[in-house]
Amino acid sequence: MGFSIGELSRRTAVKVPTIRYYERIGILPAPRRTEGRQRRYDEDAVARLAFIRHARELRFDLDAICTLLSLQDNPDHSCAQADEIAKARLVEVDKRIAALGALRTELRRMIEECACGRVAECRVIETLADTSHEHGVLARS
Fold it and tell me: Which domains does the chain have, with CATH numbers?
């Protein structure tokens, strides 16, 4: 008979509204329904939702996840497209790491230059108040 949406949520650690959303946008197939119109899920739904959750944890966007699911549904096709999606995600991660590195450098510089005296001479406050850096490190991250 299957299990309820609440049980699917417990098994996958995905919230019920998110499950409904995934059904609405088509990345999770609509489940069977009872005569009383209750959703009923099976182990395939658990596996698919676990795949989606893991992909979201890796910060793949929904379009990429949709493509990856389509590829998973056709196991005899080439995995070149999956490789390209993963490579593009890696480029995004590398950019984010570079931005975070620049942020770390800026924060260390602010701290190291701080005289730890009065606020009037505080390098941290002075740096943050400097509007010439409005579109600096933080805007890029």
Answer: 5-77 (1.10.1660.10), 81-140 (no CATH)
